[in-house]
Design goal:
The protein has 365 residues and is α/β, with parallel strands linked by helices. 35% of the residues lie in helices and 24% in strands.
Length: 365
């Protein structure tokens, strides 16, 4: 039997979705502990997922000889601290989005990992949906040629009860608004398929709830490959959905699953510009072999990295690229100018992307 990796999940908000992911690949992982400041919640979740150990003390996990990986699912403002402690303890770390709160933090984390025994794995679970993986399969076979236009739509609903959680909606603890906390995975799909961004121009607004950061966004993007893209986000949708379209010179690709939190999943629609292209697409997809999707899909590949030496499924460079986009979005919204990427250490927002005004106005303000 293959070696199982032992995991402790810290933070049981989105951490519950991680636990479900581990349950789908239980032949690869043993979840040996859960940790949350709310002990009653931790015990309830542990019972549901049959986890043997419950703690409210993160430090106790670092000194345990029963843990290989700490999976960090806490509020964003403490990610860097917990990552650094985990790596210093010689353990592997998995961490939810946003990885950290600035590009300076991202570079510091990369430096810490370079000296550490453990490996840090940023979470970008949307990448592993079967529909998106089919597009990557077609790209690898040379069936998606010159990119023209990409549209990414994240239309979700977050009402006042969502922001009743004390750390949400605040720059100091959530680190940003809808572009960071909600649409970051969908926006990662843009660069996962099309590569690096050249420049962006962002319009942001706070329209839905009286919170500090943005909850609506319209962003214009130029990619380094010459294509263009639009990113549209709102947290005020009556009907939630996420939708992505890629227009290439030879085909159009569209996510047809409008499930708001799994846009990478099947069904995806592939339409070529000719019957011959359609036939080539159909033939190429015949040898597509699906693996697990979403969190389970990324966890399966993390296992392959740690046990079998496979390529890391999502790199720290990938995570930094997503934070670079966030930095550019907030800088553009603050200055009213287009922002060029990449962003280096001499950029005014390298150490802190929070706009000076800290508000995008509410309603008609």
């Amino acid at each position: 039997m293959s070696k199982k990796l032992r995991v402790a999940v810290v933070g049981l908000g989105i951490g519950k979705a991680h636990l479900q992911g581990y349950a789908e690949v239980r032949e690869l992982f043993d979840v040996v502990a859960v940790c949350d400041l709310d002990e009653a919640k931790a015990r309830e979740v542990a019972e549901k997922f049959d986890v043997p150990h419950v703690t409210t003390d993160f430090a106790s996990l670092l000194s345990s000889d029963r843990v290989d990986i700490i999976d960090i699912c806490t509020p964003p403002h403490i990610h860097r601290q917990l990552i650094e402690q985990t790596l210093a303890a010689g353990l592997h770390a998995i961490c939810e989005k946003p990885l950290v709160g600035s590009l300076a933090d991202a570079d510091a984390i990369a430096a810490a990992q370079a000296k550490a025994k453990g490996v840090l794995f940023p979470i970008f679970q949307y990448r592993f949906g079967h529909g998106l993986q089919k597009l990557k399969h077609l790209q690898a076979k040379g069936l998606a040629h010159t990119p023209y236009l990409t549209t990414v739509e994240t239309s979700w609903r977050r009402d006042a009860d969502y922001y009743a959680v004390e750390w949400r909606g605040k720059w100091a603890t959530e680190l940003g608004g809808c572009c960071l906390t909600h649409a970051i995975h969908a926006h990662d799909i843009l660069t996962y398929v099309n590569g690096p961004i050249k420049s962006i121009y962002a319009n942001l607004a706070t329209r839905v709830n009286k919170v500090e950061a943005e909850d609506c966004a319209a962003i214009s993007v130029r990619m380094r490959n010459g294509s263009v893209a639009t990113l549209a986000v709102t947290l005020g949708a009556a009907e939630e959905l996420s939708r992505i379209r890629f227009m290439f010179s030879d085909l159009t690709v569209e996510s047809r699953s409008t499930h708001p939190y799994r846009p990478g999943d099947d069904p995806w629609h592939f339409k070529g510009k000719s019957a011959e292209i359609d036939a080539a697409i159909d033939a190429a997809l015949q040898d597509f072999v699906p693996r697990h999707s979403s969190f389970a899909g990324q966890f399966e590949l993390i296992y392959d990295t740690l046990v079998n030496g496979a390529q890391t499924p999502v790199t720290l460079s990938d995570a930094r690229q997503s934070l670079e986009l966030i930095t550019a979005i907030y800088h553009s919204a603050e200055t009213g100018d287009a922002v060029q990427l990449p962003i280096a250490a001499d950029h005014p927002k390298y150490g802190d992307w929070v706009p000076a005004s800290r508000r995008f106005g509410f309603g008609n303000e």
